[in-house]
Amino acid sequence: MTDEELKQLIESNAKAIAAAAEERREMRESIAELRQSTSELRQSTSELRQSTGDLRATIADLRDISVGHERRISRVEGKEIDAWGDRLTLAEKLQVLEARVKRLEARDDNGTP
Questions:
Q1: Residue percentage of the chain with pLDDT more than 70
Q2: Phi and psi (nearest 5°) for 80?
Q3: What's the pTM?
Q4: 85 SS3 class
């Protein structure tokens, strides 16, 4: 090999080394950006998990409120609901008692024991 060929080979290798060093620098920057993005995604995931927990608690609260409202509506409509089912309200109990009294009075008037 001549001196000129060696010089060209050295220059060519120097350019290749410089290009490889530039690619390596760009790769390091990309890795740093990826790490930053990963960190941000982890933080967002954590915040979403917290928000999901808060939403579940809110839904449970709203469900409890809804059940209370349904019971109040049932009472307003004239029925009281408990664990055993429908019960007569005071007004309905009074109507039943009045009907019994009328039947008893009717029996007494007819002389039926």
A1: 83
A2: -110, 130
A3: 0.46
A4: strand
How many beta carbons lie within 10 A of that of residue 74, not counting itself?
14
Q: What is the pLDDT of residues 31-68, one digit of tens each?
A: 999 999 999 999 999 999 999 999 999 999 999 999 88
Separation between Cα atoms, residue 54 and residue 51, nearest integer Å: 5
Q: Hey, which residues does 80 pair with through a beta bridge? A: 87
CA gap 34, 71 in Å, rounded: 55
Give the residue ranges of DSSP H helices in the chain.
3-77, 90-110
What SS3 class is residue 29? Answer: helix
Q: Which residues pair with 86 in a beta bridge?
A: 81
Q: Which two three-digit tokens encode residue 23? A: 């690619």
Q: H-helix or E-strand containing 79? A: none
- Residue 80 CB neighbours (<10 A): 14
